[in-house]
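Researcher: Please translate sequence to structure tokens.
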Amino acid sequence: MPSVMGLLEERERAARQRVEVLQAELREAEAALGRFVIARETVGQVLAEPSGGEDAVVTVREERSAPVAGAVGAVPGSVVPRWREGLDAGVLASDYRRIMAIVTELVEEAMDCRQLAVALGLEPVPAKVEGVRSKAKRLAARGWLVEAVPGRFSVAAGPGGGS
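Model: Translation complete:
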């Protein structure tokens, strides 16, 4: 009959081996995630700054929306364009327009992502706040917002004429 200590040692050894396997799988999954994030960011940059210049953007937009004359609004999931003179928030997807409206019209100082989530009518739970943070950071990276203090966003001087 095996001893209790022997059984415990055997189970401990099996658990340790399982932990090592899971840690290896986690490292592989994190590496894959990192590659996907880099790929998405690279594609986003390429789409935001086409090599053909301004004319290439107009041509592509005209082909996709031939019946509509003038500027084309964004569709959900579209890339946030870099802000430039003459560009207004109407070119942004609806979630980004809502964030811009809140930051532009409702506040005089920088807002954190939790405040933005509440102002958007979302529950201030981590998952929702992180979604808002991701969008606000993207707007800041493209010149629509300013993140003067980490995690606090205000309107850039150009888009809303603010800070």
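Researcher: Any highlights?
Model: DSSP finds five helices and three strands in the chain.
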